[in-house]
Amino acid sequence: MLMLKKFVKCRPISRFGLINQRDLNVAIIGQSTFAAEVYKLLLKNGHRVVGVFTILDKGNRQDPLAAIASENNTPVFKIKSWRKGENALPEIVAQYKQVDAELNVLPFCSQFIPMEVIEHPKHKSICYHPSILPKHRGVSAINWTLINGDKEAGFSIFWADDGLDTGPILSQKSCPVLPDDTVDSLYNRFLYPEGIKSMAEAVDMVANGTAPVIPQSTEGSSFEPSVRKKALQKVDWSKSGVNIQNFIRGLDSSPGAWTIIDETEVKLFKSSIWKNESPTGKQVTVDTLQIPAIVHDKGLLITCNDGLKINIERLSVDGKMIAASNYGNADTAQETIDYTDQEKAYIPVVETIWKNILNMDIAKDTHFFQSGAGSMDVVRLIEEIKDKLKLTLKNDDVYMSPVFSDFCNTLVKRSRGSTDDNIRVEYDPVVVEVNNMKLQFAKQLFINGQFVDSESGKTLECINPADESVICSIQCASEADVDQAVIAASKAFEGEWSEMSPRDRGAVMYKIADLLDKNREELATIESIDSGAVYTLALKTHIGMSIDVWKYFAGWADKIHGQTIPISHARPNRNLTFTKKEPFGVCGIITPWNYPLMMLSWKMAACLAAGNTVVMKPTEVSPLTALKFAELSVEAGFPAGVINILPGLGIEAGRAIAEHPDIRKVGFTGSTATGHAIMKASAESNLKKVSLELGGKSPLIILDDCDLDKSVRMSMGGVFFNKGENCIAAGRVFVDSSIHDKFVEKVIEEVKKIKIGNPLERDTHHGPQNHKAHLEKLINYCNKAKNEGAELKIGGKRLDRPGYYFEPTVFTGVEDHMFIAQEESFGPIMAITKFSSSDLDAVIKRANSTDYGLSSGIFTKDISKALRFAEKIVAGTVFINTYNKTDVAAPFGGFKKSGFGKDLGEEALNEYLKTKCITVEY
């Protein structure tokens, strides 16, 4: 911020003549990292910096502008003052004139500069000011922009005159002020990067004779005092809540708004409007307010006189920054962390960065701010950590860990995907002792990083399908709960999740994969008692593939990019066209009951890798592993609001997700009928993008030249895997007539060997069906097949024991017109049909005669026939001499009424990304 004094009478500034040169002799007058970055950019653009005039060293610490100039052998002059009283110091002015500058550039200057200096160069002086002049002409312009509640912020580059920020305008740029913006966020997002670039552009315009000189209007001009006066930093609680919020954020992070809490002077930082219900917690008295504030797990909640609630996340007490949620607690030392060898290598790098910033030797107890660092040094520290260690920190990481040893701990935690390895979310747990272990999981909705009750208070019963006992009752989400989850997801998308680098988002995803692996046995057990999955299969597939999916897409998080595209140029100019891949924002995910955790992982991992946030509804009949996943997501370090999990009924919570105007994408796996409803709701709401993985009636063709034993084994896996509750199950098996009887004989022989029983027993092959309604559907399915003439060879009925057990079933004589040949059973029912291998095209036509097209398979030693089948079959997946072989890297999805869009593989990312095309003319 420039401060000018009337040392000489104002001289008018006019447009200078055309200049042929592309470089200038520039003097930079100012300080800070901002000025240092302008210096570097001017050199890069070919200009000569003939002198740098900056402030005195602070102790043994020189200003960043002086440091970078010295490294480049640019003359540096450290000026204590340019004047004495009202008069310029002749020796200082003479020193300045010796550098023979053609232009003065003042990127950030806190000193009074004499007009003898301002007007001396051929092209006079240009200055940077952090406001849209003429408004907020004072030294604290950006603070007052926020305090006054302006909807627009920005900066001006102006020609210096003898007034205070009143000279003609050269250029201005603006940006919107976001609801939770602070001085730091505005500087980091816009004023800092765009200001540096614009200062360099302004020098180029001066060099080319194209720099505008626009008289500055006095209309709407304002001048506010410096907020450095302590009296101006005190919160006036008599004002409206909105004004108070603007005041607190207008002083965040420097110098900080202060008030009195329980007779103690406290500074308030990181404030936001609170829109939820008031939490419970310790009450404290805030200055003149009548309603006590509440210290809770998310901060300090203050209720203003007009009823508006403001949440404060950080406090400064006696000069020490603390989490507001810890106010009133006894001080505790930071935990001891065991560093890996790689993490130990971070420490000397961080020490060097601190040493360069503070210009002093660094000890474990060195305090960043007490050693002279300011807010711009925080920016420099974060940027250097990013450059040298490829780790992204937040300003809060520095403010909350200003001591060197604590900062190193925070850095290591961030590298592991969390700022606190011991983060746990609090909830009232369900505790179950089963499978020789003690299980613990939540029974509430998971919204904004917390387990909460449903707005309606409705509950759902979770039934163990192995014995029909009630495991627990869980909260059932309503439309209002979906609204709250979307608000949380929107805030997370606009805030912390988008601010994290893709690599850091990937690190958090790797962390959740590690936690799933660490809790593999517990998750498999919960999956087993909740869905009926055989425990050993749950370990390998339900949980094992979930882990693989998170690792796979974590690797994709920092590899999403667009393309450059050659187009016809607009002669005589040229064009550059390129694309960007961008996340949608808030996405909805609705998953089925057959693979509860795996289906969550298939969709959510791709969604989050693409940079979206998510509101997810697991199936109401098997939601427990999703709630356990929610718990682990907090420990992994996902910011609040990124993941929201709402068990509930499809007719209410599912429909609310499909219809919600702020959800821009829905991913669904389930029935074709529900898929129709979701598409309709999405179309009638906001035309949100939809991907659907729906029903299947997948054909499996067994030719007469196959390996018969392998075909039998693979066919049985294709039908009976996971109790037949498998979307790509081989719904219809076509067997060549010459081997049909032998094939059926071998299948029945093997079916008799299947052990049906308790899914937790290690030698069980086949557990109960997922829920009672599905069991009854399978019984009716078999009755209809028999009534239409299909021959039941084995099974077809419920076992006479507690639990939803259904016998593995084989039908032969299945004809194309039968219900069993056309519709999915989604159970352990094999439907066998004869055909002749001599007419492959005929059987392919029959296989294609259903409304579905999810998967397919063929067994043959004839590669020509196999490839012909693969070419002609209408299915998203084709297996040749294998079945059920899915992989996290292979795209998965169907055609026709089996839906559209892909899970897994690189193609799954495209379901959660939009492509933006950008064309530049130059």
TrEMBL record:
Binding-site residues for NADP(+), renumbered to this chain: G670, S671, K777, E824, S825, F826
GO BP terms: 10-formyltetrahydrofolate catabolic process; one-carbon metabolic process
Span of domain Carrier: 341-415
Gene Ontology annotations for the cellular component aspect, listed alphabetically: cytoplasm
Gene Ontology molecular-function annotations: formyltetrahydrofolate dehydrogenase activity; oxidoreductase activity, acting on the aldehyde or oxo group of donors, NAD or NADP as acceptor
Site (Essential for catalytic activity) residue list: D165
Enzyme class, first EC level, given as a word: oxidoreductase
Recorded superkingdom: Eukaryota
Entry binding sites for (6R)-10-formyltetrahydrofolate: Q111, F112, I113, D165
Keywords, in A-Z order: NADP, One-carbon metabolism, Oxidoreductase, Phosphopantetheine, Phosphoprotein
InterPro entries reported in the protein's UniProt record: 10_FTHF_DH, ACP-like_sf, Ald_DH/histidinol_DH, Ald_DH_C, Ald_DH_CS_CYS, Ald_DH_CS_GLU, Ald_DH_N, Aldehyde_DH_dom
Catalytic reactions of this protein: (6R)-10-formyltetrahydrofolate + NADP(+) + H2O = (6S)-5,6,7,8-tetrahydrofolate + CO2 + NADPH + H(+)
UniProt entry tagged with the keyword Oxidoreductase: yes
Catalytic center residues: H129 (proton donor), E693, E693 (proton acceptor), C727 (proton donor)
Enzyme Commission number(s) of this protein: 1.5.1.6
Keyword Phosphoprotein: yes
PANTHER family: ALDEHYDE DEHYDROGENASE-RELATED
Similarity section: In the C-terminal section; belongs to the aldehyde dehydrogenase family. ALDH1L subfamily. Belongs to the aldehyde dehydrogenase family.
Name of this chain's protein: 10-formyltetrahydrofolate dehydrogenase
Organism field: Aphis glycines
